[in-house]
Amino acid sequence: MQESLTNVAKHASPDTTTRVRVDVGAPGPGRGVRIRVDNSAGSTPTRAPALPSAGRGLTGMRERVALYGGTVDAGRTDDGGYRVDATLWPVPR
């Protein structure tokens, strides 16, 4: 999810707001974790200069989360912002 925050810093308008939510679920077997990053559209869409990256964007996020049996859902929100929502589950033993 660090990649989500990096993308906000690289691509979002200076007045974009970002919200990070972490839900660790109820204690017990099968407990999962959900991490959600939302950013608003801001008033002036901008393209910051490209910065070096090794994360491979959404594909890389999906691959890393899949290692923990999780999923990633990402895309534009109705108000023009962007959301990345990852759910991780314990790896079956």
Order of helices and strands: HEEHEE
| Count of DSSP H/I helices | 2
What's the story with the biggest beta sheet?
4 strands, antiparallel
Which percent range describes the beta-strand content?
Answer: 25-35%
Cα end-to-end separation: 25 Å
Kindly report the spatial arrangement of strands forming the biggest sheet: 1-2-4-3
Radius of gyration: 15 Å
Helix content: 10-25%
**Which spans of ≥5 residues are poorly predicted at pLDDT below 50?**
none
Net shape: elongated
Give me the count of strands. Answer: 4
- How much is the average pLDDT? 81
Secondary-structure class: alpha+beta
Write a structural description.
- The protein is α+β, with helices and mostly antiparallel strands and 93 residues long.
- Helix content is 22%, strand content 28%.
- The chain has 2 helices and 4 strands.
- Strands 1-2-4-3 form a 4-stranded antiparallel beta sheet, covered by helices on one side.
- A hairpin with a 5-residue loop joins β3 and β4 (82-88).
- The protein is elongated.
- The two termini are 25 Å apart.
Quick recap of the structure?
22% of the residues lie in helices and 28% in strands. The chain has 93 residues and is α+β, with helices and mostly antiparallel strands.
